[in-house]
Design a protein that fits this description.
Helix 1 (about 25-35) packs across helix 4 and helix 3 (about 90-95) crosses helix 4. The protein is an alpha/beta fold and about 140 residues long. Helices cover about 30% and strands about 15% of the residues. The strands form two sheets. Strands 5-2-1-6 form a four-stranded parallel beta sheet. It is globular, with a radius of gyration of 17 Å. It contains five helices and six strands; from the N terminus they run βαβαββαααββ. The chain has helices at about 25-35, 70, 90-95, 95-105, 115-120; strands spanning about 15-20, 55, 75, 85-90, 125, 140.
Length: about 140
Amino acid sequence: MKTYMIKAGELDHRWHVVDADGAVLGRLASRIAQVIRGKHKPTFTPHMDGGDFVVVVNAEKVRLTGRKMEQKQYFRHTGYIGNEKFVPVARMLEKHPERVIEKAVFGMLPKGTLGRQVLRKKLKVYAGPKHPHEAQQPTPLDLP
């Protein structure tokens, strides 16, 4: 038996919409990462972008379990010596709720050009309930 590898012309990309209202961040991010990578399809090929597009609405209403709202921090470095910046997740949810979901999904994707390409192209996150992708007729995505 030989392993089937899908060709570039046979790829089928669909659109899905996810309502993040009351959803737990980690569970939501793992399901989104699975769909935009294409692992939910029987034609999954590791070296190709065979995933679907995901539109996330109501990102500001995502839920975190435990004491993560007080304890979780996002780290970045400015490039200067000793300039480490820590941003609490509560402040990030107030100012940029889209980034919380994007960072969680990015952490679950492979590190490399394919992971960055999939995240940039396939994930669309919006803080409120409206999104400009109605023309693609996205189907609701079931969450665990």
